[in-house]
């Protein structure tokens, strides 16, 4: 392993446990964390034909239940039983280790030029899947094209979603609470996206300030924002939630929002994890993003830690942090 990213899921695992009795890997009383990783192949089995020692790879995270049709065809992200395992999260050890063993089918080859930023591939797979599902949700429309897109938040997934949308030359607006002179806002503007502070928008009527959108990618994970963004959708719009709140408190929703979903043919959906095609698309897009928006992708990694001094600092979100990574080896 070379580098492993740290994200909100890691913090959730530390703070709230390992998902009940199935959280720990079989036979272990601990969990090796880390699921956003890049490594170098050092040894292969005799049946491996598409990888060789020296190749740079990112390992996928989710492993199928072995029972349902989705997992049987390599789409564990759509597992019907929910009895999946995820490396570094639930049921399987992760990648925050000097060496790991995995099946070749779970390793995605990446070009050497991505070595420094390859932990971002896992984060990018989420908006890649969201965009794939949005495309499917709009496929029945006489004019399914997306012209205006809104992204909420400025975390790694949100900013990678912005990069993905701008790579497609879509008019993109970012809505977040960080001030307009923040690093996150500056990075968004470097992609020629429009940045709007949350304080300047009335969430009861967001279109008064922002206009309507064909699609919204909600990446804050805040329940109130998820509800409010229904009102930001234009006719036949699609809202994709890529961040979900973990608490159980009630959140009010205006009856008119539900009426609007019916009257304007709106779609609300959630996206999590990704299938192999999303991973490969993320690798290809990350290469193009670094070319088209020089410096932006690399700037998403704001904090670095050495594995020999790894402690709670790497798991603590600090002001200005976008993505933290742990360096394991050269």
pLDDT < 50 runs, ≥5 residues: none
Number of helices: 10
Overall pLDDT confidence: 93
Question: What name does CATH use for the topology of the largest domain?
Answer: Rossmann fold
Task: Estimate what percentage of residues fall within beta strands.
Answer: 15-25%
The SS-based structural class is: alpha/beta
CATH architectural name of the largest domain = 3-Layer(aba) Sandwich
Q: Name the CATH superfamily assignment of the largest domain.
A: NAD(P)-binding Rossmann-like Domain
* Gyration radius, rounded: 20 Å
| Spatial ordering of strands, largest sheet | 7-3-2-1-15-14
Q: Helix coverage percent of residues?
A: 25-40%
- The N- and C-terminal alpha carbons lie at a distance of 9 Å
Structural domain count: 2
Shape: globular
Number-wise, the strands total: 15
N to C succession of SSEs = EHEEEHEEEHEHEHEHEHEHEHHEE
What is the name of the CATH class of the largest domain? Alpha Beta
Largest sheet at a glance?
6 strands, mixed
């Amino acid at each position: 392993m070379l580098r492993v990213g740290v994200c909100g899921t890691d913090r959730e695992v530390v703070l709230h446990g390992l998902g009940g009795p199935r959280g720990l890997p079989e036979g272990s009383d601990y969990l090796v964390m880390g699921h956003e990783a890049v490594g170098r192949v050092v040894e292969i089995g005799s049946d491996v034909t598409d990888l060789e020692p020296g190749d740079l790879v990112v390992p996928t995270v989710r492993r199928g239940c072995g029972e349902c049709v989705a997992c049987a065809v390599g789409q564990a992200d759509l597992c019907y039983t929910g009895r999946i395992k995820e490396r570094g999260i639930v049921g399987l050890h992760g990648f925050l280790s000097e060496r790991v063993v995995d099946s070749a089918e779970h390793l995605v080859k990446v070009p050497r030029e991505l070595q420094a930023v390859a932990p971002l591939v896992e984060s990018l797979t989420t908006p890649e899947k969201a965009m794939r599902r949005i495309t499917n949700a709009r496929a029945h429309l006489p004019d399914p094209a997306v012209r205006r897109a809104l992204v909420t938040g400025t975390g790694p997934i949100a900013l990678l979603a912005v990069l993905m949308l701008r790579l497609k030359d879509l008019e993109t607006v970012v809505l977040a609470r960080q001030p307009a002179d923040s690093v996150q806002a500056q990075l968004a503007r470097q992609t020629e996206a429009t940045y709007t502070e949350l304080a300047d928008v009335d969430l009861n009527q967001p279109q008064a300030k922002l206009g309507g959108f064909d699609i919204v990618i909600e990446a804050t994970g805040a329940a109130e924002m998820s509800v409010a963004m229904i009102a930001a959708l234009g006719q036949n719009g699609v809202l994709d939630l890529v961040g979900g709140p973990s608490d159980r408190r009630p959140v009010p929703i205006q009856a008119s929002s539900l009426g609007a979903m019916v009257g304007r043919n709106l779609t609300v959906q959630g996206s999590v994890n990704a299938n192999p095609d999303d991973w490969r698309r993320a690798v290809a897009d990350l290469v193009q993003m670094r070319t088209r928006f020089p410096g932006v992708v690399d700037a998403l990694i704001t904090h670095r830690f050495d594995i020999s001094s790894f402690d709670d600092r790497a798991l603590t979100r600090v002001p200005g942090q976008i993505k933290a990574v742990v360096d394991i080896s050269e």
